[in-house]
Amino acid sequence: MNMPESPNLPPVAKRGRSPHVAAMARKSPLDDPRKAAHAWARYRRMMRFMMLLTVGTVMLALAVLYKQGSAATVHFYIATALGIGFTMLLTGGLMGLVFLSSGTGHDESVSDLSEDSEPRI
Predict the structure, then answer these.
(1) How is the chain split into domains, by residue range?
(2) Rounded to whole angstroms, how far apart are CA atoms 57 and 52?
């Protein structure tokens, strides 16, 4: 189904495509399978390290709580372990993705098409 030509649309949109499609011409380094495999292997290695660090931190926190001799129930220890573990793994995963994106040059392949010429603060 072809849309009728409109004089107000940019040339790319007249052909039935979004104006953003033509602007994304640069390839990401993650499009190369070898570079992507290397980057994801590095990410998995980082996540394994974060898992070990998280388990160690949770065990240390639980040991400190136990040694203090508080009258905490088992539910408190479970909530503490889950809270620390989830927070550390989520933070590590998101930061790992930031490092993956920045380290592979994926961030540089994205172009800014905003039309405002004012510097952002």
Answers:
(1) 29-103
(2) 9
Other beta carbons within 10 angstroms of residue 85's beta carbon come to: 16
Reference 53, options 87, 76, 99; nearest CA is: 87
Report d(CA 91, CA 85) in Å as an integer. 10
Residues 6+ positions from 24 with CB-CB distance below 8 Å? 110, 111
User: What residue has token string 């998101």?
Assistant: 94
Instruction: Specify whether the CB–CB gap between 30 and 106 falls below 8 A.
Output: yes
pLDDT along the chain (121 residues), means of 10: 54 52 61 82 92 96 88 89 95 90 71 60 65
pLDDT at 13: 47
Q: Inter-axis angle of helices 33-67 and 74-103, to 10 degrees?
A: 150
